[in-house]
Structures are given as structure tokens and as C-alpha cells.
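User: Hi! I'm working on a homework problem where we have to compare a predicted structure to a textbook description. Could you give me the structure for the chain below?
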Amino acid sequence: MKELKTIPALVVKAEGNTITGLGTLFGVIDSYADRSHPGIFAGATPAGVRFCWNHDTTAVPIATIESIVEVPRADLPKSVQASYPEATGGVLVKRTYLGTPRAQEVKAAVLAGAVTDMSYGYDTTRVGLTRLPSGEQIRELYAVDLWEFSDVALRGAVPGTMANIAAAKGYTYAGGLRTGALSGSSLRLAHLGRKLARLNVDMTEMDLADLRAKARRLRRV
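Assistant: Happy to help. Predicted C-alpha cells:
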């Protein structure tokens, strides 16, 4: 099943049309109770991965990927280390934006902080499950087939809307990075969010009571 995850569009380095940014982090449990590990993108080559705008794979890409590189924690930006103290390392993606009007517009928006998210589409190929001391279960992502990275205009979208956006692009929404450790209740909501996304349930108008009622109905799903 093709999935989509979001990450902060953190600019690590910018020079001309070339930007290096965060691809993912290792050792961090994300908002859908997934944790990525070194080697997750090991099979990906820059030539084989597209860089798009809003996951529009039918349009001309907005950039070419120069490198997809794993780095240890020590090589992550200090701000990332502070925001994600559990991170053991991550992936940096270096891309060069094309000279087209759309590509230059997106690059300018990224550098100005107007586009604050990036995301990537993939198929899982090697996963595991871990039971935490709290009793909650998380999914370990060891390897994926990486299809594309995208700059995306998704900040502020609620989970149900994100699921609908992902579905429109042929993906199942699978959450993304967030700051701070996930509590047991947050992990339970993460599992619920994944189930709702896979069932294409729109959570836009749901309040907490709606979510709890939906959770009770989905316990056997």
C-alpha cells in the first residue's frame, strides 16, 4: 500500500537553486506511531526519485534530487537535536530547483518560510512491531520503496483533510514528525488516526466525543 508522510521543510543549507533539507529522522515515534530506522531509503537513488509540488506526479517535477544521505545525530542541525532529543540520526535531501516559474515560486516560498512542510511517498518493504513498556504498540520502518519527495502546502490541515489530500494523490496518509514524546493516549489516537485514514474517514468536523465513539466502534477493526 502506498503511504505518505509529512516532515518539516527544514532548510539546512541553501546556495543558488540548490537546497538541502530534512528527509526524515531515525528513532522518533511519529504521529501515527511509526518509527524510522537507518537504511530505510537504502534502495533509493537520486535518479529514481522524483521531486514534485504537492505530489503531482503528472506534472513536470520542480527539482532534481542530487543526493539522499544518511547522517548521524551529531550532523543534524542543533535545532533538530533540541526539538527531537530521541533522534539518533536522519536523512538529508539535496535538490536543485529547475528554472521554471513554478519551481522558482516554490523555492522562494520554501526559503521565505511560506511553505513549511515536505512529504514523501513510499511503499513499505520491511517493517516490524514493537510493544513499548506502556503496553502500546508501534510500527518499525526498516525499508521502503521511495517514490518521490514533495514540497507541500499542508500546514494547518487536520488529519481527516490530510487523509483526503493523500487519497486524491493515490496514497494513504501515515502521519508525520511532531515534537515531544507521545503519551499513551497520543499513541492510541495515532492508531485510531491510521485506521480512520485507511477507511477514508474524514475527521474534519469530529470533536473529541466523536473520536471516542469512533474508537469504540473500531476496536474490532
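For your comparison, note the following. Confidence is low (pLDDT under 50) at residues 181-192, 196-208. The first helix runs from residue 78 to 83. Good luck with the assignment!
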